[in-house]
Specification:
The chain has one domain (about 1-5, about 45-209): Putative cyclase (Glucose Oxidase, domain 1, 3-Layer(bba) Sandwich), CATH 3.50.30.50. The chain is built from 2 helices and 13 strands. Strands 1-13-11-5-7-9-10-4-12 form a 9-stranded mixed sheet, covered by helices on one side. The protein has a two-stranded antiparallel sheet with strand order 2-3. The protein has helices at about 125-135, 155-165, and strands spanning about 1-5, 25-30, 40, 50, 75-80, 90, 100-105, 120-125, 140, 165-170, 180-185, 195, 200-205. The N and C termini lie close together (about 10 Å).
């Protein structure tokens, strides 16, 4: 079974305030009598489900085309966390032991990607350090950021940079049961860019099907 954890990408999909929302320009359209339909897309690279590159929060850090694809493909655990809005997830909020080197956290604090609200939950810096000690190489979340909306110094982003954890943000996890899956969420090879949209899916492992 495949769970698509990517929000639909349309002009209704909300982006971070001040960032570039998605728009489409139709250069050619078969409904207008053209031979083909041809579109141009304008949008932030931090669109919907996306992978942050270290260069997004670290000076001279790797851009998305320089990142290894290994973190974005392989065994992954999804956990639900009971966390209040506008607070950070700490290690003691994890209800079970970690079973995979990739972790997705479903907070339920950002339920509708077409309505932006700033009171979503985020990661605590000490959680990132804990995940690193547990051998986690990627952390993902169902909110627009691993840091709180009004946070300026981005401590959890910088902890991910320090420990080499890849970041996925903007995932749609509300309909996926907890468990261990195969994650496939490959970023585009966008040279010198600070992020990339991904088509993120979770695939049921053969042993669990």
């Amino acid at each position: 079974m495949i769970f698509d954890i990517t929000p639909p990408v349309s002009p209704r999909l909300q982006v971070w305030p001040g960032d570039t929302p998605l728009s489409r320009e139709l250069l050619r359209d078969m409904h207008r009598g053209d031979q083909i339909t041809l579109s141009t897309l304008y949008a932030t690279v931090h669109l919907g489900a996306h992978a942050d590159a270290p260069s997004h929060y670290g000076v001279d850090a790797p851009t998305i085309d320089e990142c290894s694809l290994d973190p974005y493909l392989g065994p992954c655990q999804l956990l639900r966390v009971n966390v209040p809005r506008r607070t950070r997830i700490t290690p003691d909020m994890l209800s079970v032991a970690l079973e995979a080197p990739r972790l997705l956290l479903a907070t339920g604090t950002y339920p509708d990607p077409e309505r932006f609200h700033p009171d979503f939950a985020a990661l605590a810096p000490e959680l990132v350090e804990y995940l690193h000690r547990q051998g986690v190489k990627l952390v993902g979340i169902d909110t627009p950021s691993v840091d709180l909306f009004d946070c300026q110094d981005l401590p959890s982003h910088h902890q991910c940079l320090k420990y080499g954890l890849a970041i996925l943000e903007g995932l749609l996890l509300k309909d996926v049961p907890e468990g261990v899956y195969e994650l496939i969420a490959l970023p585009l090879k966008l040279v010198d860019f600070d992020a990339s949209p991904v088509r993120a899916i979770l695939r049921t492992l053969a042993s669990n099907s």
